[in-house]
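dumping this here before i forget
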Amino acid sequence: MKHNRVMIVDDSPVELQHLKEIVSDAGYQVITATNGQDAYDKAKTYRPDVILMDVVMDGVDGFEACRNITGDKDLSNIPVVFVTSKNQRADRVWGELQGGKAMISKPYTQDQILDTIAAL
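structure:
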């Protein structure tokens, strides 16, 4: 397991808990954040190996948070994976332009989440 610490960012408590269970049950250490600004701040503090990020959140959304993280020289090596219901081609292209390494569409499977983390 080359990635040990995974940050999960989602403003939905139910979604956050569901992802946390999948990731922690697979043996990863989990850090959670509830919005984009919280994610950026915690990324600076905890230096996760991977970030799973929702797109639609109040305040700083997932795309902006990804830009902030990948644009920070100290954090730019952390891969960001969008986990979102926004699954149109334009959303995927925009996510890549923001620095995202992958996009997983909701609803997702446990295997999709874990396989994506392992592939990074």
